[in-house]
Amino acid sequence: MEKKILIIYTGGTIGMTEEFPGGPLIPFDFYNIVQHLPELQRFDLKIDVAAFPNPIDSSDMQPEIWQNLAEIIVQSYDDYFGFVILHGTDTMAYTASALSFMLQGIKKPIIFTGSQLPIGKIRTDGKENLITAIEIAASEFQQKPIIQEIAICFGSKLLRGNRTYKHSAEGFDAFESPNYFPLAEIGVHLQFHHGLLLRNDNPFQPQLKLNTNIGWLKIFPGINPNSLNNFKSNHRYDGLILETYGNGNIPQLPWLIQGLNEIHDSGTIILNISQCTQGSVNQNLYKNAKELEDSGILSGWDLTAEAAVTKLMHVLGNHSDQKTRSIQLQENLAGEMTIKRDLH
To answer: Which CATH number fits domain 4-196: 3.10.180.10, 3.40.50.1170, 1.10.357.10, 3.40.50.12500?
Structure first.
């Protein structure tokens, strides 16, 4: 049977072309993609396209759109070997992370890609990224997809989606995965690192609910009590991302520790992540973090900020019991973090 790949176009820089040479940029018609990219005819594939009727800038991305994307994949899951999602770069890591939690147990590739230059530009990186993403989505071993997870294909690397963040607004290698090696190197050959690929024995069970009633507090020198006001009493959040120094440390300010305890005791789950892009939170390493551990604040280990916020939305949206929520946040649900409980 002919292998089928579904391209889902959401918007972003990759989807722009010049109305005429040197003219203004207009949205690319992805329904006629083969006319614009005849190279795709060389694939032994049937490529279908599902395009958003109103392409969106990635800075306008919202959780409701993540749910729409997930629903498209769920509804089309049995019809396609793999999926390629074209997305703006600014929030691509957020969307890839969100889908990794919403579509746990997936056994097919969902490959995100985009570009730094519009596909209609002569020097675009969009063509190579798109062609490579399709090739990766169609790659198989023993009649099964090589990639069975959500990944980002960009520049010279294939990265796990929920391990990734955008580190450059200029470079063609715009994304990095600071705490997990690339799933594949993209060069003359596609070199898959099979030992790093996600394999899940659990059944594919979509969980599309999200709870966006969360807050975000970043620790900084000079932080004052007003910073906690939005997270107390009259502004009850279900979850709070606490972005701390280094291995999870905070300054020893009595009002800060007391305020965090009050927020936690009110029923808000607090997840501690590091401001460092590389490394891991360890709340048992230093005294300045130990008080957080003793207060019941959860370690986010080496979660990226993008994975932390989307995982928190996912867990809060699909579980109502506080104990279950805490357990889920400390579990590695979709390859998003490395747990090192023996650190001391």
So the answer is: 3.40.50.1170
